Amino acid sequence: MKRVTKGAGIGNILIEEVEIPVISSTQVLIQAESSLISRGSELWRRYAVEETVDPRIMGYSLAGRIVEVGDEVDQFVSGDRVVALAPHSQFVTMEVVNPVHVPSVIKIPDSLTAEAATFWPLLTSSVLWIEQTQATEDQVVVIIGQGIVGLLCMQVAKTMGVGQVIVCDILNMRCRLSSQLGADKVINLEVESLIDSVFDFTGGKGADVVIEAVGGSGAQDAFSQAQEVVRKGGLLQVLGLYSDKPLPLDSGKIQGVRLVGGYLDRSLRPKAALRALQLLEDGDVEVSSMISHKFLYSDAKEAFDLLYIHPDRAVGVLLEWGV
Fold this sequence. Notes:
323 residues, 9 helices
């Protein structure tokens, strides 16, 4: 079988041939149909590092079909369509009786395409992130960054009935997509000031919740501006990871503001996973328009290069496994 790996050297994405893994009695074997590249973690902690990367962590959003089940497995049968926290590979084994991550594999309905299902892991996280803000129908939420995570969080917030959702990005393509997917206000940072726009929109009060979802080289500026636009008594939630330098925390501006990084309660993930799947199935979160490119798995190097070199052209990039 074929799988994606990363050799020594920045951007050295490779396809290697290995034996199809043998399952244990508590595992299932999944044949891949489609897998989604997560630009944040897969670029900044895989693609853009000098060292080799274990292929078992090259990706975590794969949809396909179960082709073999272990003797102790009773919740899945051969032929089930599933999505899994699994790497880019033609075949993967997944522990389902005593999984490390709960849930790590979930059945998907016939009405949901494999391509759409690949968004389930990141959508599950987005559901958790938005739910823990406890934003209400009379509040203003600002989401800085409209990559996959930012776009999913924006849509989840709208399904929860949050009062007003303002989003911003520096890339025209992402701004257009945000508007198309239902943001109440889109700020194009190429032509508008985030700080001025948010204070104009809120009558000088600032946002009740600010979500910083920018990674890489833009994270420092995004976090600095987030501290400017969150109101006193508000919440600043940091989702963007893998910044090049430490984030600039201004102790004066953060006074009276709640600061949260990532998850507060991972025990809520199983419920969020089911909620995310339902949102995809019902079409309340729309992901098909977020898919900008599809590549055969054999062209994985080209897919990663596109995401790294041309963030203005790509959002959701899928690898297709030819099933």
